[in-house]
Specification:
Largest sheet: 3 strands, antiparallel
Number of helices: 4
Order of helices and strands: HHHEEHEEE
CATH architecture of the domain at 139-154 and 162-222: 2-Layer Sandwich
Radius of gyration: 55 Å
Strand order of the largest sheet: 2-1-5
Shape: elongated
Distance between the termini: 121 Å
Number of strands: 5
CATH class of the domain at 139-154 and 162-222: Alpha Beta
CATH topology of the domain at 139-154 and 162-222: Fusion Protein Consisting Of Minor Coat Protein, Glycine Rich Linker, Tola, And A His Tag, Chain: A, Domain 2
Length: 225
């Protein structure tokens, strides 16, 4: 009787059966491979040693402390008297000063008056009294000088500033001396301001109705439009 005649007697092999049949060979093959790999790693891996991190400690030296100094207590405050004490003194009632007369002090015996000394006020800025302040006369010329003397590098960069300048002006309104009173923070602007100051012309300063020499300070400003 053939297998075709009896189909129910044919043995069927499934994928699960094949997996179970090959499990043993896969398992032992994996164990052998893992053993070989571990053996190779432990034999060919470089030896690793820990770095020496030992430290040397220096021997501590004992320091002898100076003996403790005992600070004396502050002195006791002196008690003030409860009532003011009036000192006893003999004072004459007549303490008027004798009158001074020309007979007792003749003019010939008096010391001469001090000689008048003229001081050069142009040497440095100083207080000079005046009632009428000098006014700038050549405004247009000064405006052109500001544009001409403005440092190009600072002007192109948009950097400006104000320089306060001392002016020593004589009786005719002429500028005799100039110097920087307060800087703008840029030396180039300070130097340019002094050049502009040299061409400035003023009206004379007056002390009441008299022309006088004066020290005055004026600001010179450089700014971009």
């Amino acid at each position: 009787m053939s297998a075709k005649a009896v189909p129910h007697l044919v043995e069927r092999v499934t994928a699960n059966d094949r997996l179970k049949a090959s499990f043993g060979s896969w398992f032992w093959g994996s164990v052998i491979a893992a053993t070989v790999i571990h053996f190779a790693v432990f034999n060919f891996w470089p030896d690793m040693t820990a770095a020496d991190i030992a430290t040397n400690t220096e021997e501590l030296e004992a320091i002898e402390l100076p003996p403790e100094i005992e600070i004396p207590p502050p002195p006791e405050r002196i008690a003030r008297p409860a009532t003011p004490v009036i000192a006893e003194a003999d004072i004459e009632e007549d303490i008027s000063i004798a009158p001074t007369t020309f007979e007792d002090n003749p003019v010939e015996d008096l010391p001469p008056p001090p000689e008048a000394t003229e001081t050069d006020i142009s040497a440095a800025p100083t207080f000079t009294p005046f009632t009428v302040r000098p006014d700038l006369k050549n405004t247009n010329e000064v405006r052109r000088a500001l544009e001409r003397e403005y440092p190009p590098l600072l002007r192109d960069a948009g950097i400006g500033g104000t320089v306060n300048v001392w002016f020593f002006i004589d009786e005719n309104g002429r500028v005799i001396r100039t110097q920087v009173q307060q800087s703008s923070g840029h030396k180039a602007l300070d130097d340019a301001a002094l050049k502009v100051a040299d061409i400035m012309e003023f009206t004379p300063a007056l002390n009441r109705d008299k022309r006088v020499q004066v020290w005055v300070a004026f600001p010179i400003t450089f700014q971009t439009n």
